[in-house]
Amino acid sequence: MSTQQYSRYEASKADKTWEIIIGFAIPIIAFVGYIWYKNWKIRIWRKGIFPADLTFTTAHLMEAYSCLTVYLITIDRYHQMQKIAYLRSFFIRQFKGSPDHFDDIIDRNFHYPIEPVSVVNWVNQHAREQQKKQLVQFLVGLCHIDKLLKPKEYTALKVFTKNLQLEAAFLEECILFYQKERATHANNQEQQRTASGSTGVSQRKKYADILGVNESADEKEIKQRYRQLVKRYHPDKYVNESKEQQKQANQRFLEIQEAYEFLLSGK
């Protein structure tokens, strides 16, 4: 082999060596970069900031709904389970299913609360006006689950509406709608009580029947039966069923939640 041929051989060998090194290095650098980016995102979440650069996807929009739901629950924890069930029910109706690991998302938001204004600002940046209005309608409905809009809830709703660049009158219309719904519901209940002569005792019997326990059931028995029924009628089990079956299961799920909270309240 001549000196010239040897030189070309050595150069070719060196080029192949560099190609191998680069071939290994690029995936490693990409992997390290991905891990760093994910950790950076996690640090942002744990600082309580909704990442402003998140793309506008259904999954991220559901995340925004979850963050704001948990925030409003922390303002008023009464009927907490029903509010979480209301959120899940909304997801199933609006987005055709709740997100994977729904319970984990809710738990994470309780442990690492997200600043609500950063969530609303993200929605305002990406969503259409109709989607913004839908969010406000949902939040107003969430606050009215316990039949009363608290002052702190009202203040939060006004801030959200303003940051979404919606008219204050729209918020008042939503509140008025739910107040009328509440008044109608209360009137119907009063008529039912008058017609049946129901008492506090019969009310407890009604909820005990929903759970399938005795009126005198203790807390342990109530919780045990509640867990059994929640597993059976959980909305996620009916995602692939007909809309009518989904509706019935969701209604049953909400009744179970209401009965459980009433019986544990000791009324």
Automatic annotation (TrEMBL):
One of its GO terms (molecular function) is misfolded protein binding. Keywords: Endoplasmic reticulum, Membrane, Signal, Transmembrane, Transmembrane helix. Pfam families: DnaJ (PF00226). It is found in: Endoplasmic reticulum. The chain crosses the membrane at residues 20-37. Its main location: endoplasmic reticulum. GO terms for biological process: protein folding in endoplasmic reticulum. CDD domains: DnaJ. Gene3D superfamilies: DnaJ domain (1.10.287.110), TerB-like (1.10.3680.10). Residues 206-267 form the J domain. PANTHER family: LD25575P. This is DnaJ domain-containing protein. It comes from Taishania pollutisoli. The lineage of its organism: Bacteria, Pseudomonadati, Bacteroidota, Flavobacteriia, Flavobacteriales.
